[in-house]
């Protein structure tokens, strides 16, 4: 920057004065005009510097870094897929050898049955009719026919049996988890340090990779029924403003620390039934249906188990604005905002009828679809609801949703994207399988701890509505977290004797039902 020099002029009496401010010039003289000129030169230099920077600006490094990360992800995924393929191929060969042995045993048993109990009897009766006039009794014919029918049925069942279940995730489903998107930040917002940009996952080299989920092509945040991101929008004044914070629940912190609940209610029994809307908490307690808001008890309704059945599960449907109450043989609804008398509050859904008088066990809902699981998952029914009509649209058998050797299903639960099934295996270990809404298994769960025995289905499954699930084993008093990648880990917690956990419909409250002592604890998220 050129520095201006002070110019002087000589007055009539021979003194020197500044040609800018006309003040006498001496060693202490500082010209204000000269100072302004110096600052102007400095400002010009800064402007030139910024002009050069803008002209040199480029985003090529952003593209290169993201491209490098994408290529690394592709390489890692291909390597993982190849490794997984090799592992599953070996498992297939071992499993097929076991099945071959089992199949060969079946063949030998059927051949023995045919050669020992059926063919000789038929031969004897044929010989009898050709060598004598003695008549063959109809009873003997019927006995052989029954044996033959039984053998034919067993062979048909074997031919229809799948023997091996191959469950593979479609690569297209990764679209729901991995996206490359433009950072949702206006230029005005990016220049304002007081406005935070939407959360991203940032690699060590600084490139941003967005992980989102989509429904019908629109981004959807966890637990947001409107399908909108919680990031920056432009207000009516044209300035950027922050929307509400996206839902996140730090499960580790929640269970590690003994946090004082916002409010606590004492209950009389150790039942696990619990359902939560955005306004109310609904439980079954000591042959009463009890309704709370987030601060107080609101209503108690008597429940006659002889008339209505023992309650096994309940949930809240935001699309119907109703609590759904499942007993061992029937389904009932309850409108918490209804002003009708108590005897008309609980309505039976007559269209829901269990098959062959089997026991109902668990219920969940997703929009207008209601899923009901029978005891041990012998069947799962799907209903489509357009009030007042409830239509049975599909029924799955246990073999369609479980492994042939599994003991059965304990809970069926829905989150924003999938169905979760808590399954007890033949070895009594628990796992959580992830299904789509057509009950096609997308991911077989990893092994967790065991049940006490095959008859004690004592556990509870809870969705966190962000592709994560909580599993509570009542027998071992342990809580497990299933993450969005299918990995499981046991949570270290000071909470004990938890029977059930529910999130409110608006994801603002976290409710725990526990025993010893029996209580309801409400936490604000």
UniProtKB/TrEMBL annotation:
Coiled coil ranges: 82-109
Annotated region described as Disordered, given as residue ranges = 215-235
What keywords are assigned to this protein?
Answer: Coiled coil
Keyword Coiled coil included in the entry's annotation: yes
Give the organism the record lists: Didymodactylos carnosus
Q: What is this protein called?
A: Uncharacterized protein
